[in-house]
Amino acid sequence: MKTIDVFGVSNSNIASYIQREDVDSRFLEGLKRNKHIVVFGSSKQGKTALTNKHLKESDFVRVNCSPETEPIDIYKSILRQLKVEFEEEKTTNSSDEISSKIGLKAKVKIPFFADSEAQGEMALKGSSGEQSKYKHIEYNLALPQDISEILKSNNFTKRIILENFHYLEESAQQDMAFHLRVFEDYNILFIILGIWREKNRLAQFNGDLQDRLIEIPVEPWKREDFQKVVEVGENLLNVSFQDVFETIIDNSFDSIGVFQELCKECCLAAEVETTQEDRHFILQENLNTAIARKVEDYTGRHIRSLETFVEQKVKKTDEIPLYIAYYFVKYLFSLTSLNIEAGLKRPDILGGIQANHHRPSDVRSSDMSYFLHNLTATQIKKNIIPPLFDYDRSTRKLKVIDSTLYFFLKNIDKDELFEEFDKPAGI
Q1: Do the beta carbons of residue 168 and residue 67 sit within 8 Å?
Q2: What is the pLDDT of residues 221-279, one digit of tens each?
């Protein structure tokens, strides 16, 4: 086998994939039940791999979300993939409350079968079997009930996978949370993949979804999980990681994505590109090369992301902005990896920012609320994809959700990097 097919991060199936009782079994159970499934966790932690492992392409329709995606875009993509023909028609409605509301209607081509009398006539004429006919019906493609009726008329039984649900604007996420309740009534079932780390994210938008979803966190990855992954890879490539396994674990920060990439790069550094005839031992020097390669891979993106994150446009005013994001990163860089992994409590973030701020008494609790509650949306608007941070309102903790950021922070000089950031004007 090829090393790149055994280890690494890929949209295709990786041969060293292992099934975990608390994740894979729960996912398979969810497929048997008439409920939506939400798979969540940090980036590169196995969400897409989970669906690829247990679903064939014929079992689902996949829609990739983006910051510009609205629910109607999701529904139109589904219909196009199913080759459902529709002709859009824009209409403008006016009312006392809404001066101009744009609705989007469409005439959809719906199949139906000829009635029994018509089928009898076809039989007399020598025709055989049921013949499909079509009629055009007007639907509103923005309404989940109308979409459900269209899908049901086409005998739709697949799952709908929404990739990167976290990219949607919060208003679109909220709309989808209400729409999912309608789809459930029609047994139109979704699998939602998102980068966040707390439970009940969708139930926060629509409490009626509580207990109506099957939520599957792909984290944490346990040490024995990593052991199983490496054992599968060792057998497939005829290599041994016994001399470097513990060090790879230490550098992976519980991220299966980082672990897989380091295993792959170790093999390539040892010139193991395919299965070996004789047992090949991976050495510390191979791991050193692998770490250097991944630092180089991750550095460019993370530096750009952090620089973009701390940037703040100055409005035309005499008052200097608070630059909360800038001081937050300064506080983050002062912490150890263990502190960051545990999650950052809101009071600690406030205290850490105030301790370094040029106007500490002006940094109020309300400023912290605005910063934290808009954290994900701000990153997406700044095109920081995937987002680096997420704030869990239920636990009041900020967490790193890009699993490669831990690895990056461990392997760079944080003080030197921070000095390279442009210092905001006026401080």
Answers
A1: yes
A2: 999 999 999 999 999 999 999 999 999 999 998 999 999 999 999 999 999 999 999 99
Helices 256-269, 223-237: inter-axial angle, 10-degree rounding: 30
pLDDT for 335: 93
**Nearest partner of 162 among 313, 36, 252, judged by Cα:** 36
Determine the pLDDT at residue 12. 86
Please tell me whether residue 317 adopts helix, strand or coil conformation: coil
Which tens digits make up the pLDDT trace of 274-292? 999 999 999 999 999 999 9
Q: Which pLDDT value is given to residue 115? A: 47
Cα separation, 326 vs 306, whole angstroms = 9
* Residue 386 structure tokens: 């995937």
Residue 337 neighbours by CB under 8 Å, 6+ apart: 253, 406, 409, 410
Contact 213, 34 (CB under 8 A): no
Q: Where are the alpha helices (DSSP H) in 270-374?
A: 284-310, 324-333, 337-341, 346-356, 365-373
pTM for the model stands at: 0.83
Predicted confidence (pLDDT) at residue 90 exceeds the cutoff of 60: no
- DSSP result, 206-263: -GGGTTTEEEEE--PPPHHHHHHHHHHHHHHHTEE-TTTHHHHHHHHTT-HHHHHHHH
Q: What is the pLDDT of residue 112?
A: 57
Secondary structure letter of residue 71 according to DSSP: H
Cα separation, 331 vs 345, in Å, equals 12
Structure tokens at 322: 């608070």
DSSP labels, 333-348: HTS-HHHHHT-EEHHH
Q: Would you give the distance in Å from CA 260 to the centre of its chain? A: 18
H or E element that contains 276: none
